[in-house]
Amino acid sequence: MSSRPSRLSATDRRQAILSAAAPIFARLGREGATTKEIARAAGVSEALLYRHFASKEALYAELESHCVEANAVGSRLLAEAVPSTATLVRGVALLVQAVFPGIGDARSHDDTKRLVTASLLGDGQFAKAFLDRHVTPWIGVFERSFQVAQGAGDVEDGVHTGSAEIWFVHHLANTLHLISLPDITIVEYGVTRERLIENTVRFLLRGIGLRSAAIDRHYDPEKLETIFASMDQDTA
After folding, report:
1. What CATH topology corresponds to 10-69?
2. For residues 7 and 28, is the Cβ–Cβ distance under 8 A?
3. Which of 129, 109, 224 is nearest to 174 (CA)?
4. pTM, to two decimals
5. Long-range contacts of 89-92 (CB under 8 A, 24+ apart)
6. Where are the domains of the chain?
7. Which of 5, 79, 119, 191 has its CA 20 to 30 A from that of 135?
8. Where's the DNA-binding part (predicted)?
C-alpha cells in the first residue's frame, strides 16, 4: 500500500503554486496561461488553486513579489554597500554575473526575464514593479558610487554620467541575457562565458567613464567569483 504524499502547509502550497505558475506565464503570457494548466503543473486541482488565489489575475499579480524573492541576488552586498569606486566596480560585475545568469536558480532568472519582457510588451505593470523593487535601489548605489569615484579621480576628464547612463548599464546587461534565453545560440561571440562576462563588465565601466587603471585596481574576476559563490549559498 503506497503512502500518501505529505501535506503542505497553506503557505508552502501557495509558494508551490507560484513556482509552478512562473514558467507557464513566462512561456504563454498572462492571456495565454490557464489556471487549469497551472493547477496541473502544481499538482493540485483548480478548486484548490482558487482557494489560494481568487483569480488568475490575482495569481499573476503576486508573482512579482515571488520573483523578487526568488531572484534576491546581492541583497547583503547592497545593504552593506558604501559608495566608492570599488563598490561601483563590484556592483556592475555582480549585475552582469547575475543577469547572464550566474547567481541563484538559472531557471528562475530565465522565467523572471520572460515575465518582465512580456510585461513590457503589454501594460508594463509587472516590469515596473519588479524594476522598482529589485533594480532601482542598485541604481542609487551606482550613482552615489560614481560621484565618489569622480571625486577620487577615477573617472575620465570631461565625462558627465547621470541617472540615464547608469540605467544603460542595466539595460545592456539585461539585453545580453535576453539574447541568451533561447535554447539555441543566437549570437556566437567566439569567447568563453567567463571572458564574455569580463569583457562586458569592462565595457560597461569604461562606457560610464571609469578609468582603465581604476577598473584594473578593483576588478578581480577570480576574487569576485568567491564572493558570488558565497552569496549563491546564502540564497539557496
Report:
1. Arc Repressor Mutant, subunit A (1.10.10)
2. no
3. 109
4. 0.77
5. 89/201, 89/205, 89/210, 89/214, 89/215, 89/218, 89/219, 90/218, 90/219, 90/224, 90/227, 91/138, 91/141, 91/142, 91/145, 92/142, 92/169, 92/201, 92/204, 92/205
6. 10-69, 73-235
7. 191
8. 34-53
> Which amino acid does the sequence have at 146?
F
Please report, in angstroms and rounded to a whole number, the separation of the first and last CA atoms in the chain: 35
Question: What is the residue-wise DSSP string for 44-101?
Answer: S-HHHHHHH-SSHHHHHHHHHHHHHHHT-TTHHHHHH--SSHHHHHHHHHHHHHHHSS
| Residue matched to cell numbers 499579480 | 61
Phi, psi of 156 (to 5 degrees): -60, 145
Q: Helix 10-32 vs helix 35-42: angle between axes, to the nearest 10 degrees?
A: 140
* Largest Cα span, the chain: 77
